[in-house]
Structure formats: structure tokens, C-alpha cells
Specification:
By secondary structure, the protein is mainly beta. The chain has one helix and 13 strands. A hairpin with a 2-residue loop joins strand 10 and strand 11.
């Protein structure tokens, strides 16, 4: 019995059944293809074996066997799940093997392998949905924990800890109560002690006078 893959990988779709808001979807997706047998569209049931490969030939995840897959006019639809981290934004190839349902013989591989292309809509990353507010600490950042007073900045495309210099001051004038200006390069500002004479000394204030109630004038009649 000869099988031929006349059209495979029509599309890879998100598996949306049972998906609930606020929860990331799983790693399963649906795969649709077309199988021909002896030059005609296949019908009936067949066992299908799917294996995911990297471009260097290494197997990604575990092979997935779908027994007794219904095939109608050559078309079939299966659910595949190669586990977490199987798709990491790098090319992947899908190998498909087929055999009649109930057969104990090995699977007949279909050639060539099919490249898995991105779906029209991006799959929401399950790891991103699981990030809880406040769970990313300074130790989790690529430059590690920074010293007090530092902030994160980009330097030549790399995230690093930097020091905020506060910018550049070209001219600093002094107002009422300050001396030492204007400063155009380096200098020191100080308090004008003629304005604040008690600076650096003990400040003594006289006690407050007790308040007295007003006494009405005394008038006499003669």
C-alpha cells in the first residue's frame, strides 16, 4: 500500500477549545493535511506518527502518535503537542509517518519533511502570562543587582547599571541668603551668615510673655 503526501501543512492553527480569559493557552495546536493513497485521495482511518526536528536533525520533544485518524477525501485534522519550549522562534521541521490502523508494521515516512511556519496570529507566550506582578527582582535582571543610587540604562545595546549625573550646569547664580556664586565650573555654595547670624550656634529665644486679660477702667461719680 503506497501513501503519498499531496498537500500537507495547509495551516497550523491555535487550539482555542476550552481556552479561558486570563489564562495562557497550552502548547497543543491543530494540524491539517491531505493524504493520497495509490494516486487517489485516501479515505478511512490510519495511524499517524509526527516527529518534530530542528534544522540540524535533532529531535525536539517526544514523537506524537495519533492512532485511527479519520481521513475523508484525503483530508485529516489532528492535535499535536510536543511540550513546552518546543518552539523557540527557530525553524522547525515536521516528519510524518503513516500506517493502516491495526497494523503492527512500522510507519512509512512521508517525504519531504514540512517546515512549520508561524500562524497568522501570534501564540501568546505561556511564560509571559504566568509572570506575577513584583515577581521579577533585581537579581533576575541581566546585569544583576546594582548598587544604591544606580539606574538601568542601555549602553551599546546592552542593559547596564548607570549613575545619574544630573546633567550639566553651565552657570549657577546665588540668590538671597546664599554666597559663593555665580559658579560656572566648580565651586561651593554657603549660607550667608549675615542673613542667618545664629547658624552653627545655639539659638536662644526669650520666653514668651504671659498674656493678661484687659482690665476695664474704673469710673467714679461725684
Amino acid at each position: 500500500m503506497t501513501f503519498r503526501k499531496s498537500l500537507l501543512a495547509l495551516t497550523a492553527l491555535l487550539w482555542l477549545s476550552g481556552m479561558q480569559p486570563l489564562f495562557a493557552q497550552g502548547t497543543a495546536f491543530t494540524y491539517q493535511g491531505m493524504l493520497s493513497q495509490n494516486g487517489s485521495a485516501a479515505n478511512g482511518t490510519n495511524d499517524l506518527l509526527f516527529t518534530l526536528y530542528a534544522t540540524n536533525g535533532s529531535v525536539i520533544g517526544q514523537p506524537v502518535t495519533n492512532p485511527a485518524v479519520a481521513i475523508t477525501n484525503g483530508l485529516f485534522l489532528v492535535t499535536l503537542d510536543f511540550g513546552a519550549n518546543s518552539f523557540t522562534n527557530t525553524p522547525r521541521l515536521l516528519s510524518i509517518g503513516v500506517r493502516p490502523t491495526g497494523s503492527t508494521n512500522g510507519f512509512t515516512p512521508l517525504s519531504p519533511m514540512q517546515q512549520i511556519f508561524p500562524a497568522p496570529q501570534a501564540i501568546f507566550a505561556g511564560t509571559a502570562a504566568g509572570v506575577v506582578n513584583g515577581s521579577i527582582t533585581a537579581a533576575s535582571l541581566s546585569p544583576g543587582v546594582g548598587a544604591n543610587g544606580l539606574f538601568l540604562e542601555m549602553s551599546s545595546g546592552t542593559l547596564v547599571w548607570g549613575l545619574d549625573s544630573g546633567g550639566t550646569i553651565s552657570n549657577l547664580a546665588t540668590g538671597f541668603g546664599l554666597v559663593g556664586g555665580p559658579i560656572t565650573n566648580n565651586g561651593t555654595l554657603a549660607i550667608d551668615t549675615t542673613i542667618v547670624p545664629q547658624l552653627g550656634a545655639a539659638n536662644v529665644f526669650p520666653p514668651a510673655r504671659p498674656s493678661r486679660a484687659a482690665t476695664p477702667p474704673i469710673r467714679r461719680w461725684c
